[in-house]
Amino acid sequence: MVEKFREYLKRSFSNGPKAKIMLGLIICIACIVTILVSMRKTVNISIDGKDETIITYKGTVKDVLQERGYEIVEKDKVQPSLESNITNDETISIKKAVPVKVVIAGEERNILTAENTIEDMLLAEADNLAEDGIYYKDTDIVSPSKDTEIAPDMDIQVVNVKEEEVQDMEDIPFDTEQTIDYNKINTYREVTKAGETGKKAVTYKVVKHNDEVIAKLRVSETPVKDPQTEHVTVGGAIQKTSRSGETYLSKKTLYMEATAYSGGGRTATGRTVTYNPDGISTIAVDPRVIPLGSLVEVSGYGLAIASDTGGVIKGDIIDVYFDSNGECTSWGRKYNVEVNIKAYPGEW
């Protein structure tokens, strides 16, 4: 267009000095107009969804926004970037940062953010949080949920979840092997071989919420040292007092049904049946309960040898011997008679 206009001027004006000056001025004006026309742009500005269309001659996004008096803070999101050149019919999108309160790892922080969701905000703030030793992880518990859209003055709770494995050394209790000595009173106890506690390495998975342990789960254990069994001898006898007032040790106390018999003769072990209230009498027993040859103290009867058996003497029954039927009748049938074994065969 400029060239055509120049040709027109050449034909219309002479080549005199004034004509040349005029021609130069006109050409300059035409160039300026052309430049201005090329700089003129229609731009749409969208701020948080609100649109505005403007005419501008500015060259960059930053210049356009400054021209319109828009204040941009560090956390605002601007697309294209502030340094980008503007083209005609371009749209500048601005998302203004809003304040939110975040309690994370037990610490309260006020954050400006222009991110869309809580998770986006936490990821964007990861470096800032890390500077203070706070690390957001995908396993952390977030409330409201991570996909919730950011809103101004929102309260956000983030519980830091940490899982770690720890190993503890723990004791393995030793077993105790007990031997009963019926020749010693039941209060007697002697360690004949000391036991030794073992050791094991136990691995736990520890779950922490904000450094507070909420779960400790056993994962595995490995023996390091085997325990050594303790050997103990204990007394099995109970101190009793006989009918004569003598104290003795009872190896075993039984409560039995007691009947009586008489008539003389010999016992199953070959002894002569005897009733000696001041010495040792003979009684019949079930050998499965009281071994034949045992020395016993029968309450109300006295000292006796388990030397006889009988067809009806089965289980917890004894038959005490008397010299006469009258004594047997007087004895009758007794229940819960205390019978103490003083000595087993071969022990007296």
Automatic annotation (TrEMBL):
<dbReference type="InterPro" id="IPR011098">
    <property type="entry name" value="G5_dom"/>
</dbReference>
<keyword id="KW-0472">Membrane</keyword>
<feature type="domain" description="G5">
    <location>
        <begin position="158"/>
        <end position="238"/>
    </location>
</feature>
<dbReference type="InterPro" id="IPR007137">
    <property type="entry name" value="DUF348"/>
</dbReference>
<dbReference type="InterPro" id="IPR036908">
    <property type="entry name" value="RlpA-like_sf"/>
</dbReference>
<dbReference type="Pfam" id="PF03990">
    <property type="entry name" value="DUF348"/>
</dbReference>
<dbReference type="Pfam" id="PF07501">
    <property type="entry name" value="G5"/>
</dbReference>
<feature type="transmembrane region" description="Helical">
    <location>
        <begin position="21"/>
        <end position="39"/>
    </location>
</feature>
<dbReference type="InterPro" id="IPR051933">
    <property type="entry name" value="Resuscitation_pf_RpfB"/>
</dbReference>
<dbReference type="InterPro" id="IPR010611">
    <property type="entry name" value="3D_dom"/>
</dbReference>
<dbReference type="Pfam" id="PF06725">
    <property type="entry name" value="3D"/>
</dbReference>
<keyword id="KW-1133">Transmembrane helix</keyword>
<keyword id="KW-0732">Signal</keyword>
<protein>
    <submittedName>
        <fullName>DUF348 domain-containing protein</fullName>
    </submittedName>
</protein>
<keyword id="KW-0812">Transmembrane</keyword>
